[in-house]
Amino acid sequence: MPPTSAAALLVLLVSVLPGSLYMWAFERQASAYGVTLADRVLRFIGVSVAFDLLLAWPAYATWRAAFAGRPFGGGQFALAWVSVAVGFALPASAGTVIGGLYSSRAGPDGWPRVRRLLGRTAERRLLLVAHGRGREPRAWDDLFTKHPTCFVKIKTVDGWWQAGWFGRQSSVGRFPHDSDIWLERAWPINADGHIGDRPYPYGVYVPANRIAWIEVLEETAAQEAPCASA
Question: What is the CATH number for 190?
Answer without folding.
Answer: 2.30.30.100
